[in-house]
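Workshop exercise sheet. Pairs work together: one partner reads the sequence aloud, the other fills in the structure field after running the prediction. Swap roles for the next sheet.
Pair: D.N. / O.F.
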Amino acid sequence: MMECSFSVLHVRVRITTDCVELRDHLEAIRVKMEPDRPSLRLLHLRVQKEGGRFVVREGTETRMTCPDPEWTTVFLHQWINRCICDDMEGLMVHGGSGTFRGKRFILCGPKGAGKTTLLCRLIFDGVQVHSDETVFLDDGEAVPFPGKFHLKEGSIPLVPELGPVGLRLKPYPVLSGDGRFFFFDPSDAGFEWTAPRAKVDAFFYLEPRHSGEAGTGLCPKFIMVGKILGQTLNLARDPRHQIRQLCRIVDGGLCLDLTINDPAQGARMIRDVLRSLS
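Structure field:
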């Protein structure tokens, strides 16, 4: 019996299996970050091979059956993240976060705008990147969700330093559309990976345009609140409390729209803004 164990925020994750085909796959989704808080609960998933299919169980409940080890791995990753996020307090935002010279920022934008590629560029430019996909806004602070990044194959040529890293990682099928992606985190490239909570100093909204004039522009705070709400994943039935919290957090930070033509250009602009706040 093989076991893959790791912690994500307040949850201890344990995956046990007798399927040797999953050995390297489970290593791909293991979160290699030491928790900064004690584990409050255990999420135990068991994977067995039955009739040529991988069967994922949590307790007595069957969560998935699938004949393919890659899709089984993608499902395990998604299910783990969902279970942990469902327990979290605060507003769940589709966006990444990082810190540069002591200043915390959040990078939002629609799916496919290039957030992960830009954040990967920032990793190699001296910025601590905490998350690429999800951040919680709670009690006046940002709480990064330390999930593995979904690094698309097409991002590798845009950040050349990722080339040697990509050779060591296994690609997986994307959930929608064509192409494949890698499970990646800063430690795969030799950098420290942490996810501390902190007050937000700047909000960047990455516009989904990659041609024309690039630059940053001040965004009125009430408009930034609306944009972030458009990237929110867990609005309650009565969202007034969440929106009030969001307004307070946004009011304390600089709000900017960001338009880029390439990741290196975007990384320079973000660093310049954060440097000016230091």
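Discussion prompt: DSSP finds seven helices and 16 strands in the chain. What would you look at next?
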